[in-house]
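Hi,

I'm pasting everything inline rather than attaching a file, because the server keeps stripping attachments. The sequence lines come first, and each chain or strand is labelled.
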Amino acid sequence: MTDSSTSKSPTAPARWARWRTPLGYALGALVLFGLAPLVLSDFRLGQLARYLCVAIVAVGISLAWGRGGMLVLGQGLFFGLGGYAMAMHMKLADAGAGQLPDFMLLYGSTDELPWWWQPFSSPVVALAAVLVLPMGLAALIGWSVFRRRVRGAYFAILSQALAAAFAILLIGQQATTGGTNGLTNFQGFFGFSLHDPVNRRTVYFLIAATLLLLMLATRQLFHSRYGELLVAVRDSEERVRFLGYDPALVKLVAYVLSAGMAGVAGALFVPAVGIISPALIGIVPSIQFVIGAAIGGRASVAGAALGAVAVAWAQTTLSEEFPSAWTYFQGGLFVVVVAFLPGGLASLWHLAAARRRQRTEVVTAA
Amino acid sequence: MTVILSQSFTGVSIGAVLLLIALGLSLTFGQMGVINMAHGEFIMAGAYTVYLLQGPIGSAGVSLLVALPVAFAVAGAMGAALEWLLIRRLYARPLDTLLVTWGVSLMLQQLARDLFGAPNVHTGTPSWLSGRITLIGGDDPLTLAHGRLFILGLALAAVVALTLTLRLTPLGRRIRAVVQHRDLAEASGIATARVDRVTFVLGSGLAGLAGVALTLVGPIGPTMGTNVIIDAFLVVVVGGIGQLRGAVIAAFALGVLQAVMEYSTTVSVARVTVLVAIVAFLQWRPQGIHTLRTRSLA
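And the predicted assembly:
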């Protein structure tokens, strides 16, 4: 997808285009940091924090799917890895040194902390694991899959199956993972009480800042040489191979980065929402992540993020009042957008701009 | 010894269910390169057909047999509608088809919830399917459930019927031509769009049959499609595109592997192991068991 904003002639629309992105991000920052905390109640702000976490995942999806052509239907896997890494640390920190987390006492099946829980008592290890676990696993999966040129629908199904398997594994190991209930009921976040509204507000600011930074970084990546290469791989993998690049490596980088973003989102989701459970990372939530990005605009960072926030907001607000109608509406909107407007709602902007240009050309020609 | 036999029979019967749910998918994916996520909901439609027929007919045995053709027709009609409304417009974009059909499956699930309620419904088991055959008596008996044998028989019958259709009928010849080389088939005067539609109806109808079979082994509910669709796709992925033989081998291999793993570990560990095995297998044969050799790069 070409960016119509990089027009060479210094006409009025082009001058405007140069400022459009910085202005957009400034406006976004103003809304997130100024307006939202002012007008929203603490409860609503917590909900917004949750939607912003989904938006972080969507930014990663726009990188891997929108620009890289890899339909990542299993981002819940990486979201869950980041989330559980953070949640395990918070559980251990709540329990205090040498104590078992409360749910393990409840099930009463183990007297000793399982070995794979132990490293997470260190905050440094837990924070590192939030990035290392998802990105390491994505590197492993991606390397073995892309090198063998498994792609398209095969890759999509495989990634979805992995997310499903992870959820099943967590449910099966109830004594050490909390099973279907997941990990919940957290007291503190790195020593700060989560019952204090000020601290909850700080978590929101942390999430908003992370989202904006990741959006800017991803946008920068789109406009780099690597971003061009990624789009080239998406559009014609074989040609890129013939030019001497290794498409597997190009795809791997995008896939690993998107997994890292999902992991960060999962880790931030836990203190903001207060739960991580298999129901939040299985097949259905994994596809929900993609829906937001698809409706907003898969190849555009801002489109994907805004789409994710809008869909997540509509999901909570409308599904409470009209659960049945909302499902039809969401499914229908998704079908119509993907089938007839593959660029998402963000591409309406480009379509309108293209039409305007066409009209101007017709006028000058006449 | 009996343990091995009974576990292999469990594996074969899991494989038969997998084969039934994957057969239609293998057909449509093979021919059109289209991933139909709503396939699971067509299976669900077949299962609810049994449930609906049981009321007026009464006898569970008769209604199951009547349901077979009816479910085939119901699911086939749904497939025809989906193909005509959406899929034929999306042939060049397989990944978008996957997402669009997932949106459709979301709506169909909600429809099932609104029509039949969210909880699972149950159908009676026909009397002639409730018994077990005893193969080895004594202290360590080996018995096979009639219901499982029926599913195995249905799966094999479906494979045989489909194979004969593809091999012997003019329609089968046209389908094979389109699978092997769409452009050449079109250039030879085959109306590929029409062949696609017929294939899609056939594949969806097979999903309806699978739904009827599934009523014998599990509950009927709005989410039953989601539960089986991933397994069905894994069978297709492992089996390879365009050949029924690959799907048959893959279904039984995955079924036996699942049964063996379930016997030696827990269900959840077994599922994860099977998945890891599939990823490892794709390292070895990225295009599945059966590959259709072409000169294309993609």
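The CA atoms of residues 142 and 172 of chain A lie 26 Å apart.

If the labels don't parse on your end, tell me and I'll reformat.
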